[in-house]
Amino acid sequence: MAKVSAKNVVEWPRGRLDFSAGCVVMGVLNVTPDSFSDGGQFFDTDKAIEHGVQMAAEGAAIIDVGAESTRPSSAPVSAEGQIKRVIPVIRGLREKIDVPISIDTYNVEVALAALEAGASMINDITALSDEQMAELAAEQQVPVVLMHMQGTPATMQAEPKYDDVVTEVLDFLVSRAKRAEQFSIDNSKIFIDPGIGFGKTLEHNLSLLRNIDKFVAAGYRVLVGTSRKSFIGKLTGKEKPSDRIFGTAASVALCVAAGVSIVRVHDVAEMIDVVKVANKLKIQS
Ligand code: HH2
Q1: Pick from 112, 198, 218: which is nearest to 157 by CA?
Q2: CA atoms of 58 and 273, how far apart (whole Å)
Q3: What tens digit of pLDDT does each residue of 215-237 get?
Q4: CA of 155 to the centre of ligand 1 (A)
Q5: How far is the CA of 45 from the centre of ligand 1 (A)?
Q6: In this prediction, what percent of the chain has a pLDDT beyond 70?
Q7: How far apart are CA 198 and CA 107, in angstroms?
Q8: What pLDDT does residue 285 have?
Q9: CB 36 near ligand 1, within 6 Å
Q10: Does any ligand 1 atom lie closer than 6 A to the CB of residue 66?
């Protein structure tokens, strides 16, 4: 089994991530009118830049910029549409902050435009399904997030089915990570992500999170995105995503304790505190 790089600092030509304290926070910046939890709030370029700057000031180690909602039943946005939304935001952020900016897209045209504008990481919810995306990441030596999804956002919550969700999701991610390595993407720059809420029932999400240590042991760093998601609403009865902060905090603390390297969250200031404390309480293995 591949061994995760022992290096606590991951550096590449246009970015750096320091895991010496443990887990770090990725702040979500949705430049969309329709995201499930903050749609429309940062659709305006200036507001989006301001929010990204604020999340960096609060301690986010990465800002993840996306121009297409992938909530259940969402429709795709064209490459041209995504580029129009996201590029001015990336340019504006690049002038103001130093932390790496990741582009949340599975479209290679969008990723290329974002990297040219100053992004330096690719968050691909299709785990490099498009070989051109793998080639782009390798060529530009940028880190990649490989996420698992069953189906597509349009249909994924219709009837998700697995025989053994943990084994199936983990096997998929390890095979995609190995493929990424074959494209000469370094192990230290590969992050695997079980894709909480992407073609998963409540029970599937819970099984994945209860077994997140198995993902951590698989030889690649792990990213998890539980922030404000509907499984938290189902467990707490909180209908409004913005009321799910404490529920998110519980999942973040347990992910940190299990050895997850990056948590992707909306509420950066709050989760920075959770991560700082959980990093210190984590039993060192
Ligand atoms: N979740 C969302 C979007 N992108 N990327 C990764 N790697 N992991 C995730 O769990 C993940 C993700 C969904 O959250 P959000 O961006 O807030 O919502 P929307 O897709 O509606 O914009």
Answers
A1: 198
A2: 10
A3: 999 999 999 999 999 999 999 99
A4: 16
A5: 19
A6: 98
A7: 18
A8: 66
A9: yes
A10: yes
CA gap 180, 196 in Å, rounded: 21
- Residue 22 above 80 pLDDT? yes
Check residue 241 and report its DSSP letter.
G
Cβ of 230 less than 6 Å from ligand 1: no
Judge whether 47 counts as a catalytic residue: no
Is the CB of residue 209 below 6 angstroms from any atom belonging to ligand 1?
Answer: no
Measuring from atom 1 of ligand 1, which residue has the nearest CA? 225
Residues in CB range of 268: below 8 A, 6 or more apart: 25, 27, 54, 55, 58, 59, 60
Q: How far is the CA of 70 from the centre of ligand 1 (A)?
A: 7
Among 189, 264, 280, 282, the one annotated catalytic: 264
Query: pLDDT: is 39 or 195 the higher one?
Result: 195
When pLDDT is averaged across residues 100-128 and rounded to a whole number, the result is: 98
pLDDT tens digits, one per residue of 233-273: 999 999 999 999 999 999 999 999 999 999 999 999 999 99
d(CA 115, CA 99): 14
CB atoms near residue 236 (< 10 Å)? 13
- Residue 50: pLDDT band by 50, 70, 90 thresholds? very high
pLDDT digits over 149-185, tens only? 998 888 888 889 999 999 999 999 999 999 999 999 9
For the question of residue 240 being annotated catalytic, the response is no
Nearest residue by C-alpha to atom 18 in ligand 1: 35
- What whole-number distance in Å separates Cα of residue 123 and Cα of residue 106? 8
With vertex at residue 12, the alpha carbon angle to CA 9 and CA 15, rounded to the nearest 5 degrees, is 80
